[in-house]
Here is the input.
Amino acid sequence: MNKHALKNVVTSVRSRLLNVARQSGKPFEAVLVLYGLERFLFRLSKSVYKDKLILKGGLLLLGLGFPKARPTKDIDFLGIMFGNIDAISQTIQEIGSINVNDGLVYDFSQMTHETMSPNSEYPGVRFKFVGQLGQAQIPMQIDIGFGDRVVPASREMEFPTLLDMEPPVILGYSLETVIAEKFEAALDLADLNSRMKDFFDIWGLSQKYSFDGRLLQEAITATCTRRKTAIHSDAEIFSDEFAERADKKGQWSAFTKKGSIIGAPEDFANIMATIRAFLLPVALASENGKLFQGKWPEGGPWSD
Here is the structure.
């Protein structure tokens, strides 16, 4: 595409994104970032690596329509069968360099990378670079983790687009594994875990979706086994004391206000009561070596 044609596309895209920002009430900068992330996913969907990077994290939930209120500024992937960091870096650049008529250009000239969780058995990698829509600079961050098992298997999803463009069709985590990873983190780091968004996500998913208890138990077992975390029913997150702690209530209040979260209970204890009802029966069965076969409808409770 020549410079004149690119300029016309950029002008059109920018104008339409400004309309999206006005209509949604979101800052234009946040809409720009989401556009940059979305169009990288589209390039991934057109690459030979589309089966090697499985979407997870906040962008996955946003793509599934939950929760619209919680912003995300990066892409989280599970990487499948990659070599060293140089090979991963080359992959990111190959994907971003695919020519698409959407006004975006990804600049990798100053790309940086750092190791995440370097002491873990499967350390991840974080890449930072820049997307450009004309003169607008879009900060891009991609986090890639390794070694996790997705139960049930990853599934194809169509990621929604901000504008009337062809959507990315990519692989995404199963919701059971989304919950399993957040639950494992809470089991492992309950007292340190100030990531209120994890509690919010578990609560929200339990309200929006139905779950098969056997599959959820299998996902939790697979994640906790891989991460060497014991599943136990007397975990701190299940206790009344944890739900009533003043510091946790304060963190929850700050999280909901900062993120303009809509529809969530104001009281942290109510969130934890729902999480307890959702996950404690699964933990009890796992702890006792029993198969859990309950059915969870949207909003619960479990039934046989």
About this structure: Residues 3-24 form the longest helix (22 residues). The CA atoms of residues 55 and 256 lie 25 Å apart. Residues 176-296 form one domain.
